[in-house]
Amino acid sequence: MTSISFPNALRERQLAVVDVEGNGQNPPEIIEIAVLLVDGPMTPDALRSWLIRPQQPVSSIVTRKVHGITNADLADCPPWAEVAQEIEEALCGRVLVAHNATVERRVLAAHLPDWNPPLVLDTLRLAKTVWAGLGSYALDKLIERGELDTNSIAGQGYHRAGYDNLGGVAVAVRADHRW
């Protein structure tokens, strides 16, 4: 990822662009989270990602149809309790930027009950304003439309947290004239 500047209205804010992937159970457990910390221009080292071993197995349908993450992929990963504090510290005091942010916030709040973002920016809603009439608002289409370089997340495909995270970035960066 090359250095990218966010819109003027957000440049003074600390942002956390977040995407989570779940195990397909009810309630969902986070099995992957990517957090892009934005304190000015974005750089490749600003993206943090964790794989997390859930208490309940990843459902085969979610593995097959959504993110491709298997129980074997997570077998040696830390459980949520071992990474929760580090993730909460990364998010603390930052504006939550997420695609379909209501869902992301609800899942995160269930895992981090003391966390409350000062502001939530939903890139799905924003995308529908910025790129009205776009055939699809899927994150891979937004990355393509935003012409973002995905080389820094090579090996992560659509619906992996790091890759999907860039869809939100594409919308926010291209929305500069809307702020």
TrEMBL record:
Exonuclease domain ranges (all copies): 14-179
Coiled coil feature spans: none
The enzyme's E.C. designation: 3.1.11.-
Record key words, sorted: Exonuclease, Hydrolase, Nuclease
InterPro entries registered for this protein in UniProt: Ribonucl_H, RNaseH-like_sf, RNaseH_sf
GO molecular function: 3'-5' exonuclease activity; nucleic acid binding
Enzyme class: hydrolase
Highest taxon of source: Bacteria
Gene3D superfamilies in the cross-refs: Ribonuclease H-like superfamily/Ribonuclease H
Keyword Transcription attached: no
SMART domains listed in its UniProt record: EXOIII (SM00479)
Pfam families tied to this protein: RNase_T
Protein name as annotated: Exodeoxyribonuclease 10
